[in-house]
Amino acid sequence: MTFKALTARFALVVSCALLTATPAMAQFWQCAPFARLVSGIDLHGNASTWWGQAAGRYARGHAPKVGAVLAFASTSRMRMGHVAMVSEVVNDHEVLLTHANWSRRGAVEHDVRAIDVSPNGDWSEVKVWYGPQGGLGTSAYPTKGFIYSAKAGSDEEQVRTAPMIMAALASDSHG
User: Are 102 and 109 in contact (CB under 8 A)?
Assistant: First the structure.
């Protein structure tokens, strides 16, 4: 890892740590508005619609990249779907996610573990860390794939946008 990449990663981690200390984090977050804010992917509506909305607007695929959004499919237990931003790619079958409204209603979680458990290793089914259990949940969730923002995979771009995200979160808590 280059010094520039290491510096960028450190700045991103510090920014995430500062985000958890802001009063804005006390507000109730749905996954879609939070994912839009932290990823820069400008899609609206229920998380279950993001994959379709992204067609022709954003690149989509089945390989995780930092800054990409993992789009979960709707299920009977998760009717609105779910979206979560990839904060780190650990390896081909494990990522860390930053997302909202998963383990605790409205709460934001940073760098939680998600693993690919799909039969073909294509990220079409995942298990995600679940706070009340303190580990991976017992359920596997179907996903549609990754939506790539213009900044997905770019440490430098994420460092430049981190202060803007912090400012946006801070201003949301006051108005």
Answer: yes
